[in-house]
From TrEMBL:
Signal peptide: 1-23
Name the UniProt record assigns to this protein: Glycoside hydrolase family 13 protein
Domain Glycosyl hydrolase family 13 catalytic intervals: 133-530
Keywords: Glycosidase, Hydrolase, Signal
Family matches, as InterPro entries: Cyc-maltodext_N, Cyclo-malto-dextrinase_C, GH, GH13_cat_dom, Glyco_hydro_b, Ig-like_fold, Ig_E-set
Ribonucleoprotein as UniProt keyword: no
Source domain of life: Bacteria
Gene source species: Sphingobacterium litopenaei
Gene3D superfamilies: Glycosidases (3.20.20.80), Golgi alpha-mannosidase II (2.60.40.1180), Immunoglobulins (2.60.40.10)
Length: 618
């Protein structure tokens, strides 16, 4: 009896060991988990582990999850499992069993979670918002303990170098939310925060090596969720930067590819041409178009093959996962023109099916309004695919505001360019969804663009806060941060006061110079006025043809009228308001929202050189 008991014990130990071996050989299953009660109830699990693809059968016996199909890949280290999560599924652990022939080789427990019914998520970003763009590594360091992670490819930390990490993190951003809320910000957009285990310049985040993990130098998945929760508690929103087009060279699915067509690969390295025109040019060479869409963005950024159904599932599921996990409200989509547009249309629809109020804006760094419109799916510019993209980063107005303030007016140039670009809005399905900006992490700081002229700079901010669309500020705009993109690291300096040992703290009035404090007050006044006046969110727009370097436009609705007067001349000007009677109508007075000064709107107005005045009529 004792011998049989001992034998049974030995056999049980062997079986337990076998299960442990297979469990250890399964290095990951993604998505990391899913939820019950989702409309997206058919998902594809990626199972990765040593020779896991040699398993001939997979079983899920617990009611609630049905295994629909098992797909073997070219690489024996992968299995793809299509599962259906039933309406009666309960939150909990679901064992997945793997077999070689008739022998059970081991199991893995997959988790379904309850959805947080009290969580705020997927509200969408709209024209009532003011977005604040942060490069988290350069903003504030809330947890010095995560500055260096030993096992990662880049461990250098040097705030004196623009190329290395500086230590900013999610906890640092959370710690500055009161500052942002006071400034009038409603939405926070961080440059990508997913793990970027690249050996150089990993701080920028645009070459992610994981799809389901926050970079440990920024924090944890729980820290990111906390950021979303803290924003929502303040009535603010979270914008997540996604990069469907490419990943980093050390992404785990690139280091050990599931299949031969997971990426766009060439006999020798081929970079994208960056020529968006080839996508819509009716006379384009197919070879040119192929290089534009399928060439790599950089030697370290492999291009994903978005026509591969497994790639499509992998990308789409990870983005739905993050919305649910962290309470994300909108996506900024990096390098939008380089994606497969049919995939982007399907991707967008999948997300909107789950979250009807969710919104997207795509980076379209192109050089004309029709080029931008094309990627929105506008039929009026020959686009047969409705990408369902709601808005773009409006580079055309970005170019135009710079020209308006720096060049003299002529028939098409100077402030006439600003007028003409806005007049082209008829081409957009929803121009109010476009995101307006003066600068960002890739573009020259606008304070430098206007030659550090504070009056010009204030005019640009006034325009940004009052014209149609969704305004976006780049961190430090409010304190006159400057520099040209030569190289781009100069645009990404630390926000002084966000790091231990900083000699000054620009987050506090006491740490700002007189000019910086004046600018900070200017931004705060305009931002909070905008936040509290829906006419600047959804009001109609009327603009008048510029004359003598003076540009006037109105935002108006049934309750309020705002008049904006921009003097782009190098000298002061007197403006007769009678020309604008069509929109001034029966109003008699105006209040300068920056000074609270009230005057008769029918009297001549005096504007200083390069000054912009924002008036509320009554």
């Amino acid at each position: 009896m004792k011998r049989r008991t001992f034998g049974t014990l030995v056999l049980s130990s062997i079986l337990l060991l076998a299960n442990q071996v297979i469990a250890q050989s399964i290095q990951r299953i993604e998505p990391l988990h899913w939820w019950v009660g989702m409309k997206t109830n058919k998902i594809q699990l990626v199972v990765y582990g040593d020779a896991i693809g040699e398993c001939t059968q997979v079983k899920i016996s617990k009611p609630g999850i049905d295994l629909l199909s098992v797909h073997h890949a070219d690489n024996k280290n992968y299995l793809f499992l299509d599962i259906h999560i039933g309406a009666d599924a309960q939150a909990g652990q679901y064992p997945i069993e793997f077999y070689k022939g008739n022998k059970r080789a081991g199991s893995f427990s997959y988790q379904l979670k309850e959805r947080d019914s009290n969580a705020v998520k997927a509200q969408g970003i709209n024209s009532s918002d003011l977005i604040y763009l942060i490069m988290p590594d350069r903003f504030a360091n809330g947890n010095p303990g995560n500055d260096i992670v030993k096992d990662m490819r880049e461990t250098a930390l040097n705030r004196d170098s623009m190329y290395y990490r500086h230590g900013g993190d999610l906890e640092g951003v959370v710690g500055k939310l009161d500052y942002l809320q006071d400034l009038g910000i409603t939405s926070v957009w961080l440059t990508p925060v997913l793990t970027n285990d690249m050996p150089q310049a990993s701080y920028h985040g645009y070459a992610n090596t994981e799809n389901y993990h926050i970079d440990p130098r920024f924090g944890t998945n729980a820290d990111y969720k906390r950021l979303g929760d803290e924003l929502h508690r303040r009535g603010m929103k979270l914008v997540h930067d996604v990069v469907p087009n490419h990943v980093g060279l050390y992404h785990w699915t690139v280091v050990d590819k599931p299949m031969t067509d997971w990426l766009h690969e060439w006999p020798e390295f081929t970079q994208t041409t960056y020529k968006d025109q080839t996508v819509f040019d009716p006379y384009a060479s197919q070879d040119d178009r192929r290089k534009m869409e399928k060439g790599w963005f950089d030697t370290t950024m492999p291009d994903m093959n978005q026509t591969n159904p497994y790639v499509r599932n992998y990308i789409t599921q990870s983005h739905i996962w993050w919305i649910e996990e962290a309470g994300i409200d909108g996506f900024r989509i990096d390098t939008y023109p380089y994606n497969d547009l049919q995939f982007m249309a399907d991707w967008t629809q999948s997300i909107v099916d789950e979250y009807p109020d969710f919104t997207f804006f795509g980076e379209t760094w192109v050089h004309s309004v029709p080029n931008q419109v094309y990627f929105l799916g506008g039929q009026q510019v020959g686009q047969s695919i409705d990408t369902k993209l709601m808005g773009v980063t409006d580079f055309q107005l970005n170019y135009a505001i710079g020209e308006a303030l720096n060049k003299e007016m002529d028939w098409t140039g100077g402030v006439n360019k600003l007028y003409s670009v806005l007049a082209a809005d008829y081409q957009y399905p929803h121009p109010e969804c476009n995101v307006l900006f003066l600068d960002n992490h890739d573009k020259d700081r606008f304070f430098s663009v206007v030659e550090e002229d504070i009056t010009k700079y204030k005019s640009a901010v006034a325009w940004l806060m009052t014209t149609r669309g969704i305004p976006q500020l780049y961190y430090g705009t409010e304190i006159l941060m400057k520099n040209f993109s030569n190289p781009d690291g100069l645009l990404r300096e630390d926000f002084k006061g966000g790091f231990s040992g900083d000699a000054v703290n620009k987050f506090e009035a006491s740490g700002r110079t007189g000019d910086e404090q004046d600018m900070w007050r200017y931004v705060k006044t305009l931002a909070n006025y905008r936040k509290n006046n829906p006419v600047l969110h959804t009001g109609k727009t009327m603009q008048f043809v510029p004359e003598d370097g003076i540009y006037v436009y109105f935002r108006y609705d049934d309750d309020k009228t705002i008049m904006v007067i921009m003097n782009t001349n190098k000298e002061s000007k007197m403006i007769k308001t009678g020309r604008f009677a069509e929109r001034i109508q029966n109003y008699k007075q105006a209040k300068n929202i920056m000074t609270d000064k009230v005057f008769n709107i029918h009297e001549d107005l005096s504007l200083q050189a390069k000054e912009t005045m924002v008036l509320e009529l009554f």
